[in-house]
Amino acid sequence: MPRSKTHVERHAVDRVGWLRAAVLGANDGIVSTASLIVGVAAAGTGRTEILIAGAAGLIAGAMSMAAGEYVSVSSQSDAEKADLKREKRELAESPEFEKQELTQIYIDRGLEAGLARQVADQLMEKDALRAHARDELGITESTTPRPIQAAITSALTFAVGAALPLLVVPVAPRASLELAVAIASLASLALLGLLGARAGKASGTKSVLRIVFWGAVAMAVTAMVGSLFGAVV
């Protein structure tokens, strides 16, 4: 008789935490730094000044992303912990009501009343808090907020994304610097959209078009603003 093998499935939702932070960080790094470089270059400044502005944008942006992600994800984590604490108290004070509540959730999902009650009984006997966290509050291990992971991921991916347009500045001719940075950045955004879509098992075309379109809009607006200020100077 052949030995049975455990079938393990890997789902995109298991990566949703770090994937969101990574895509957001890299996208912000490319778009914000490229836009800054294009805007400063359009104002007629020299290559050295453009490099300094871009490097400052990279450092400031990475730190801002890390702080912002840590604060926002920590707030989400605090809210979930408060919900779990309240649910734990309710389970201790009125377990029967909580069991009826869980039973009704399963009935609403399509189970017959008797079977729903049996499922609620067995799950609460094994781990009542976990059952309510998952099925009542929607809190699971795969969606648990991780502030430090999100902060580090966002900072690193922002820095990597910001470095891509910044590396074009020293090598591109000054006369076509804005165009070179824009093309390199849009290509980087397209690659990022494709990689993010594949990691999340989503449509690559839709993701690429979306990220490239908004990146182009951001760079066009900052280039226009830079040109206006350059004309005034």
Features:
single chain, 233 residues, mainly alpha, elongated
Detailed description of the structure:
With 233 residues, this protein is mainly alpha-helical. It has a domain at 12-85 and 150-232. It has seven helices and no strands. Helix 1 (16-42) packs parallel to helix 7 (204-232) and helix 3 (95-108) crosses helix 4. The termini are far apart. Mean pLDDT is 82; it is low at 11-15.
Low-confidence parts: 11-15
Determine the mean pLDDT.
82
The proportion of residues in beta strands is under 5%
Helix content: over 70%
Write the H/E string, N to C: HHHHHHH
Radius of gyration: 25 Å
Largest sheet: none
Instruction: Please work out how many helical segments DSSP would assign.
Output: 7
Kindly, what is the distance between the CA atoms of the first and last residues, rounded to a whole number of angstroms?
83 Å
How many strands? 0
List the helices and strands and how they pair.
Layout: H1 16-42, H2 47-93, H3 95-108, H4 113-135, H5 147-168, H6 177-199, H7 204-232
